[in-house]
Design brief:
The protein has helices at residues 8-12, 70-77, 90-97, 142-153, 168-176, 187-197, 220-224, 226-248, 250-261, 265-273, 286-301; strands at 16-19, 26-29, 35-40, 60-65, 83-87, 102-108, 112-118, 134-137, 162-165, 182-186, 200-205, 213-218, 280-282. It has 320 residues and is an alpha/beta fold. The strands form four sheets. It has a five-stranded mixed β-sheet with strand order 9-8-10-7-11, sandwiched between helices. A four-stranded antiparallel β-sheet has the order 5-12-6-13, sandwiched between helices. Strand 1 and strand 2 (26-29) form a beta hairpin. InterPro entries: SsuA/THI5.
Length: 320
């Protein structure tokens, strides 16, 4: 269980006296002066904090709505983000490009309902049947990584299939219109494709290929600011409490998710029911740190990043 949230009194006590450059006068900044820029997407905790009773923060939260992946790293590079959730894939790209971020916690995610769907009528019954056939994926994402790991596990190379890299929406469209036979997908998009569009799983879980871990990250400049650091610590614990609320209230979460996405609530209930484990935020542990490094090493081995990078320097413990 997480520790108690910081009280408003404790947080507001964390003020910092700052000298105004050029005038010698001193002023005090309070936590109420802080605006924390947080990445948000349809399935992230920021959408459910109000329902979980965690939205009344003693600082301002500015949500930045982006599709994810490279755009989140671009926002970090531009100094437009203080805090973001991401998979184990972006940190290696961030280190390679010099994008400023630190990893402060681990989000234990799901490995079920992620894998490969084939179109209705496909003769493929197992992944190895896709040799020589078309398969869509989204480059430099989890789905790209899943594809490369599945190929490796079945003694295949990328050249053994007709792999077509497309943005996520385009990959879904190519699959639903029958332009490709298979697609690498996961989460609610996969269930929607399966249940409403006739897709059929040939790989339904990436267990053994991917840990299911995600990373909670923060901008180093935000962490270096004492008040923003306090806000990040508080928001992190509120997110932790929100995920616990989601685990305890799957039907309410499904209804809210359906409203946000205009997709059937039944699919979100199924996603929660079939999850491999509860979605929880935990402090970074040795196993999670090793898992992230393993992914980074794979990305180098697959030549998705130029060199092998030691990601241990990205971790900043002690915020949770």
């Amino acid at each position: 269980m997480p520790g108690p949230l910081y009280s408003r009194r404790t947080l507001l006590a964390g003020t910092a006296a700052l000298t105004l450059a050029g005038c010698g006068a001193a002023t005090e900044r309070a936590l109420s002066d802080v605006t924390l820029s947080v990445w948000r997407y349809k399935t992230t905790a920021g959408n459910f904090m109000a329902a979980a009773g965690q939205a009344d923060t003693p600082y301002q939260v500015r949500y930045v709505d982006l599709p994810g992946g490279p755009l989140v790293l671009n926002a970090y590079a531009a100094g437009a983000l203080d805090y973001a959730y991401m998979s184990e894939i972006p940190p290696a790209f961030a280190l390679q490009s010099g994008t400023p971020l630190r990893l402060i916690a681990t989000h234990q995610g799901d490995v079920n309902n992620s894998g490969v769907l084939v179109v209705k009528g496909s003769s493929a019954r197992r992944f190895s049947d896709l040799r020589g056939r078309t398969i869509a994926y989204t480059p430099n994402t989890n789905n790209h990584y899943y594809l490369l790991k599945l190929l490796e596990a079945h003694d295949l190379r990328l050249s053994d299939v007709q792999a077509i890299g497309l943005p996520a929406n385009d990959a879904n469209a190519a699959f639903t219109r029958g332009h490709v036979e298979a697609t690498v997908t996961g989460g609610i998009s996969a269930l929607l494709t399966e249940s409403l569009l006739g897709g059929r799983w040939i790989v339904r879980s990436v267990a053994g290929l991917y840990s299911g871990n995600f990373c909670i990250s923060a901008h180093p400049a935000a962490l270096a600011d004492s008040l923003k650091r306090a806000a990040i610590r508080d928001y992190l614990r509120r997110e932790q409490a929100t995920w616990q609320w989601i685990d305890q209230n799957p039907d309410r979460w499904a209804d809210l998710s359906a409203t946000l996405s205009s997709q059937p609530a039944a699919l979100f209930r199924r996603l929660a029911r079939e999850a491999s484990r509860p979605a929880l935020i935990v402090p970074p542990a040795k196993a999670a740190i090793a898992s992230l490094q393993h992914v980074a090493d794979d990305l180098a081995r697959f030549a998705l990043v130029r060199d092998r990078h030691d990601l241990s320097a990205l971790w900043e413990p002690g915020l949770i």
